[in-house]
Design brief:
single chain, alpha/beta
């Protein structure tokens, strides 16, 4: 269709006329060739894309996820407005950056796209992943609580822990010192960090995350300001979660059971602490698996603004659950294991929590069956 244009606006009109002629020329050329105009074409000479599109190569070295998990994530993030290969490419750019935690410039060169485009893609896909949080991180249903409790019973090696349905801990993630309020992010381990508080189940899947407090804040204070504590979200009445000595031992507003202070006073307390540690350490293993997958984020300072770092850390936890559900498991590396918390600062025990802990400790030490000596006598 011919279009009449007014060319009375000087140089600006000349630019518009040139652009119009270019578009019309491309349209005519495409019509002559028998196919629609192509505004861009996938560069299959880029090594990371060659690996992805060959359909066989292992994607873990570059993207830290298996091919099955990458395909699952792409499907979860897809919207009706997405078409072509553009959506897949954006997810790959995001995962490549997460796996390397490198500069946008390096990612730009790896994919042969502009640096500003890389920035936009990473921030856009981050928001998409965050919208998956409630689909991948959630508390077990009433029917699932018994299964979770049985899982912690097996971990602890004692039936006294059958009502335990979670383990809570905190993790410090290194960040580049921010220009403002840097001292607030300087933690007791002498580096700048943001805290991640997480509750996990017996299978190392996160049930709840709370991220954003600066590193100088103690674990107990993070807990008491989290929705988990303030809104009494979890565990349900009659169930407990386990924590280390950095947390208070409470039964209200949530039942949180911590170990007895060292040195313990008697064998009953010592026995309880041993079983408690076996069950509680599952959250350390969950952190270890997540750190092993996203080593570049958790083992060096994350060089983004603290506000965006919070979102990146949450994405790590969300993707961790996705991988666990898909069977994409990585064994935690040795340096990722072990407490990364305020466990050396024992919090005061509250009386109500201490009574609950005492009942569990007594159940741990109670004999399952009467010894033969007692069965032979009638008292």
């Amino acid at each position: 269709m011919e279009c009449e244009m007014d060319w009375r606006f000087g140089e600006a009109s000349a630019v518009l006329r040139t652009l119009y002629q270019t578009i019309v020329g491309k349209k005519e050329l495409s019509q002559k060739c028998g196919h629609p105009s192509q505004y861009c074409r996938l560069n299959l000479h880029v090594p990371v894309l060659v690996i992805y599109f060959d359909g066989e190569s292992d994607l873990r070295p570059d993207f830290r996820l298996s091919r099955l998990t990458v395909a699952h994530l792409i499907q979860l993030l897809r919207s009706p407005l997405d078409h072509g290969w553009g959506h897949d490419l954006e997810v790959l750019v995001f995962l490549f950056w997460m796996a390397s935690a490198t500069s946008y410039r390096v990612v730009s060169r790896a994919f042969a796209i502009p640096r500003s485009t890389v920035h936009d893609i990473i921030h856009r896909v981050t928001e998409k992943v965050l919208r998956l949080k409630n689909r991948l991180i959630f508390f077990p249903s009433a029917d699932q609580l018994q299964t979770t409790g049985a899982g912690f019973e097996r971990l602890a090696g004692s039936a006294a822990f059958a009502r335990v349905v979670g383990s809570i801990d905190g993790c410090h993630i290194r960040i580049k010192p921010p220009s403002a309020d840097a001292q607030c992010y300087f933690n007791r381990k002498l580096f700048h960090s943001i805290q991640l508080q997480a509750v996990c189940d017996h299978q190392c899947q996160f049930l709840d995350i709370f991220v954003g407090y600066p590193g100088s804040v103690h674990d107990a204070r993070v807990l008491k300001n989290s929705p988990l504590y303030v809104q009494k979200l979890y565990p349900p009445e009659g169930f407990q979660i386990l924590g280390d000595g950095g947390y208070p031992c409470t039964s209200e507003p949530l039942a949180l059971i911590t170990p007895y202070r060292e040195p313990v006073r008697n064998p009953v307390e010592a026995r309880f602490n041993r079983h408690h540690a076996k069950a509680r350490s599952v959250v350390e293993r969950a952190f270890g698996i997540m750190k092993a997958r996203w080593r570049s984020i958790f083992f060096k300072a994350l060089e983004v603004k603290p506000q965006f770092a919070v979102k990146v850390i949450a994405c790590c936890a969300i993707l961790h659950n996705l991988c666990q559900k898909d069977g994409d498991i990585l064994e935690p590396v040795e340096e990722a294991l072990g407490p990364d918390d305020g466990g050396d600062q024992v919090q005061p025990d509250l009386a109500c929590g201490e009574r609950l802990r005492g009942r569990i400790a007594a159940a741990v030490s109670a004999p399952v069956n009467n010894p033969p000596a007692l069965q032979d006598h009638d008292y």
